[in-house]
Amino acid sequence: MAGISIELRRLYKEGKLRKILLAFGYSAVLSTGNWVFAIVSIFLSAFVAQKLWGVSDVVVKYQVYITYVISISLILSGPFQLSFTRYISDRLFEKEFDRVLPNTNGVVVLTASYSFIVALFLSFFLFYGLPYHYHIVFSFTVSTLSALWVVNALLTGLKSYKHILISFAFSYSLAGIGLVFLSKLGLFWAILSFYISQLVLFFLIMLRVARDYKSDRVLEFDFLNKNRFYKSLALAGLFSTLVCGWINTYFGLIQLLAIRF
Q1: How far is CA 200 from the centre of its chain?
Q2: 12 and 105 together in one domain
Q3: Is residue 91 domain-shared with residue 5, that is, in the same domain?
């Protein structure tokens, strides 16, 4: 979007090394979002948990679980990631700022709803034999992450970059701390801590969206308008996330079979 492009160009043209690195840093983090913090926090916290408690079985299962959560949520959110980004970009260009928040709420409700249903069905297949509360937490985690992937489209339109970075860092620090201290209590408490961390991240971002793009309307589905919805971008987003998601799922399945989840 224009907002981040102008900001990054400004930082780059100042010519100072620190500013240049900051520009690249903002670009990298805002484009990869959850990926960077998820990978780093899970790797570090799993390493610490194993060293402290020796709960290697729980940690491996946790990593398989997170692999499936990220893969499925990526695929389910795929149709709206690029198309909604374009929709928001058009609304900002046309100065229809009051449409940003209600349509963000709309895409969140829609994405989270169908993601929860699909995740609940898949959960009983992937984690057959586990208690019902595992399936419920899994489904809520997938639905929350699916909404996060889509709302991530708004991050490039926001100008409070430090708020975004702090939100990601804070939420994944919670996830890491939760894994380190709750893994010894069992797998369920570890995955519950991850869900809570993602819920915190979601609300931190949405609060910022609500503050920066105020509107007198709460909910809209204007982004589904046939004249404003780009099917080609929806298909491109779906296929691109399918590739990433299935690669993650494949390695998760290998781990799953190896430890006989």
Answers
A1: 12
A2: no
A3: no
Q: Is the pTM of this model over 0.70?
A: yes
How far is CA 62 from each of CA 45, 123, 185, 190, rounded to the nearest angstrom?
A: 11, 14, 13, 7
Whose structure tokens read 């894994």? 179
Which pLDDT tens digit goes with each residue over 214-248?
888 889 988 888 887 777 767 766 666 666 555 55
93 and 144 in a single domain? The answer is yes
CB-based contact 158:26 (threshold 8 Å)? no
Whether the CB-CB separation of 160 and 212 falls below 8 Å is answered with: yes
Do the beta carbons of residue 1 and residue 27 sit within 8 Å? Answer: no
3-state DSSP of 32-99: HCHHHHHHHHHHHHHHHHHHHHCCHHHHHHHHHHHHHHHHHHHHHHHHHHHHHHHHHHHHHHCCCHHH
- In this structure, how many other beta carbons lie within 10 angstroms of the beta carbon of residue 205? 24
Domain count, the chain: 2
DSSP 227: T
25 with 130, same domain?
no
Q: What is the extent of the structural domain holding 129?
A: 33-259
Contact 156, 205 (CB under 8 A): no
Q: Residue length, the chain?
A: 261
Shared-domain flag, residues 4 and 133 = no
**Residue 152 Cα distances to 138, 167, 205, angstroms:** 21, 12, 9
Dig out the tokens for 182 from the structure.
């709750």
